[in-house]
Specification:
The chain is globular and about 40 Å long. A seven-stranded mixed beta sheet has the order 2-1-3-4-8-5-9. It has 214 residues and is of the alpha/beta class. Helix 2 (42-49) links the parallel strand 1 (32-35) and strand 2 (53-56). The chain starts with 16 loop residues before the first helix and ends with a helix. Helices cover 22% and strands 20% of the residues. The protein has helices at 17-26, 42-49, 96-106, 127-132, 198-210; strands spanning 32-35, 53-56, 83-88, 107-116, 137-140, 147-148, 154-155, 161-167, 176-179. Helix 1 packs across helix 2 and helix 1 (17-26) packs parallel to helix 5 (198-210).
C-alpha cells in the first residue's frame, strides 16, 4: 500500500508569487485589501509592495497576522476591519465555501480567491451562492506543486488551482475566463524550490504598475 502524505496543519499551503502577480495584473484592486487566511504573508507582502494598505488575519496563532479570527465564522468577521477587496488563498477543504461567502459579504467592492478548479462544481455548501453570485472572472492556470509525495518528490495536486474573482458591481454574471499557459505567466515556476527572490518579484510589480492604472 502506498503511504499517503499528511495534509498540513490548518490546510496551509504557501501561495506561489506568480499567482498573486497574475491577480495584481488582471483584477482592478484598489483601496484597503483584506487577507483573511494570510499564512506567512505570501499574498499580503506582494500587495503591500504594490502600494496597497493590507490587513492580515489567520486562525493559526503561530502565524504573524494582525488578527486571529476564524474566517469560516461570520460572527468573527465583525472583529475584522472593512476592506474594499478581499484577496486570499483559503483552505482547499470544505472550509473554503464559508470563507468565500463571508468574504463576499464583507468586501465593499470585490473578492479574489485562489481555489481549486472544481470549486465551480455544484455542491450543497455553495450552489446557492454560485447561483446568486457567479464569478465575474476565472483565471485558469497550470498546476503548481504545493506538496511532496510520500517519496519526498514535489507532486502536483490532483486538481489545479485557479483564481476566481467576484466584482460586486458587475451583476451580469461570469464575463470572462482567461486561460494562460506557462509561457504566458511572468516568473512562473512549478515548485517552491524554484521560487524567485523578492527582488525579482518587486521588478515584476513595477512592470505591472507601469502598465496599469492602480
Amino acid at each position: 500500500m502506498t503511504q499517503q502524505s499528511n495534509r498540513h496543519d490548518f490546510d496551509f499551503y504557501e501561495t506561489p508569487a506568480w499567482l498573486t502577480l497574475l491577480a495584481l495584473k488582471h483584477i482592478p484592486f484598489f483601496g484597503m485589501i483584506g487577507e483573511p487566511c494570510a499564512g506567512h504573508g505570501a499574498i499580503s507582502s506582494i500587495m503591500s509592495a504594490a502600494g496597497f494598505n493590507v490587513w492580515c488575519n489567520d486562525i493559526d496563532l503561530a502565524k504573524p497576522a494582525d488578527y486571529h479570527s476564524d474566517a469560516t465564522n461570520s460572527k468573527h468577521w465583525e472583529t475584522l476591519p472593512r476592506a474594499d477587496w478581499i484577496f486570499s488563498n483559503p483552505p482547499y477543504s470544505d472550509l473554503s465555501a464559508p470563507i468565500v461567502q463571508n468574504a463576499y459579504h464583507h468586501a465593499r467592492v470585490g473578492v479574489a480567491m485562489i481555489l481549486r478548479l472544481n470549486w465551480f462544481e455544484v455542491c450543497a455548501d455553495r450552489v446557492r451562492f454560485l447561483q446568486e453570485h457567479p464569478p465575474t472572472l476565472i483565471i485558469n492556470v497550470p498546476r503548481f506543486c504545493y506538496t511532496r509525495s510520500a517519496k519526498g518528490k514535489w507532486a502536483t495536486d490532483q486538481c489545479p488551482t485557479n483564481i476566481y474573482c467576484w466584482e460586486k458591481s458587475n451583476t451580469s454574471g461570469l464575463t470572462k475566463i482567461l486561460s494562460l499557459s506557462k509561457s504566458d505567466i511572468p516568473l512562473f515556476y512549478r515548485t517552491p524550490d524554484e521560487s524567485p527572490s523578492f527582488k525579482r518579484v518587486e521588478i515584476e510589480i513595477a512592470r505591472i504598475k507601469k502598465s496599469s492604472t492602480f
